[in-house]
Amino acid sequence: MTNQVKHPIPLPVVVVLLLFLTILCKTRASITTETEALLKWKASLPKQSILDTWVVLPSNSSSSSSKASNPCQWKGITCNNESTHVIEINLAHTGLNGTIESLDFSSFPNLLRLDLKLNNLNGSIPPSIGLLSKLQFFDLSTNSFNSTLPSSLANFTEVYELDVSRNHITGGLHPSFFPTEDSKFGWKSMQHLVMQDTMVRKMSEI
Ligand SMILES: *[C@@H]1O[C@H](CO)[C@@H](O)[C@H](O)[C@H]1NC(C)=O
Ligand SMILES: *[C@@H]1O[C@H](CO)[C@@H](O)[C@H](O)[C@H]1NC(C)=O
Ligand SMILES: *[C@@H]1O[C@H](CO)[C@@H](O)[C@H](O)[C@H]1NC(C)=O
Ligand SMILES: *[C@@H]1O[C@H](CO)[C@@H](O)[C@H](O)[C@H]1NC(C)=O
Ligand SMILES: *[C@@H]1O[C@H](CO)[C@@H](O)[C@H](O)[C@H]1NC(C)=O
Ligand SMILES: *[C@@H]1O[C@H](CO)[C@@H](O)[C@H](O)[C@H]1NC(C)=O
């Protein structure tokens, strides 16, 4: 009895922590998270007028803050009908400079289309891009990306069009990109796959 181990964390603290975590999880995939992720990405890029609309207006006391921080009207951003999630990022052919390395892909669980073709983007295609598991359309063509294609792209089970042509991408195509009959991952929906003018080795060479 006297040696009874005391609970290391007092119960009220545990309850508060759990509540906090629940709230955190709920907001995790909200438009606010998406707004913050877009602003963080913008901050990582060289200053460019193309993203001038990407600002959170100071909310007047009368207007709701959620409205003020809504990115749905920003250039290149499309939301779902309820304006609760970003479903498309389309900055194709805008002369965008920088990298996508600071874009927090975990914030966009509902993204369907990512179109960044014909820009001046360089650096790597980060493995975290595989977190866009609902993505259907993915176009990074005509940029200067110079990494390999991360194996996490096998998560693109819904993608029907993938274009990374005209980049400096190297390496091979991971076997998991190509699903077998009962695999959970892989490019199961692919209709249009374009990789010309990259340095990706052909499948026969792997
Ligand atoms: C990207 O950088 C180049 C060279 O610094 C510059 O000429 C161009 O205007 C920049 N693009 C944008 C959209 O600001
Ligand atoms: C916020 O308030 C300022 C000054 O009261 C006004 O000029 C501005 O139009 C308001 N903005 C919005 C979005 O209501
Ligand atoms: C969204 O709105 C458009 C146009 O009003 C409509 O055609 C479409 O069916 C709506 N989508 C959903 C998922 O409600
Ligand atoms: C991307 O290109 C810019 C301009 O040429 C250069 O300054 C920067 O170091 C490059 N970044 C990467 C990650 O290659
Ligand atoms: C694939 O997507 C799921 C669901 O979003 C995620 O939990 C998982 O981490 C992703 N895998 C990779 C390799 O990105
Ligand atoms: C990509 O380019 C950057 C900047 O030129 C360089 O530092 C990096 O090593 C390159 N990465 C690969 C995988 O070639």
TrEMBL record:
Keywords: Cell wall, Leucine-rich repeat, Membrane, Repeat, Secreted, Signal. Residues 1-29 form the signal peptide. It is found in: Membrane; Secreted, Cell wall. SUPFAM superfamilies: L domain-like. Residues 33-80 form the Leucine-rich repeat-containing N-terminal plant-type domain. One of its GO terms (cellular component) is membrane. It comes from the Eukaryota. It holds the Pfam family LRR_1. InterPro entries: DNA_repair-toleration, Leu-rich_rpt, LRR_dom_sf, LRR_N_plant-typ. The keyword Repeat applies. Gene3D superfamilies: Ribonuclease Inhibitor. Belongs to the polygalacturonase-inhibiting protein family. This is Leucine-rich repeat-containing N-terminal plant-type domain-containing protein. It comes from Cucumis sativus (Cucumber).
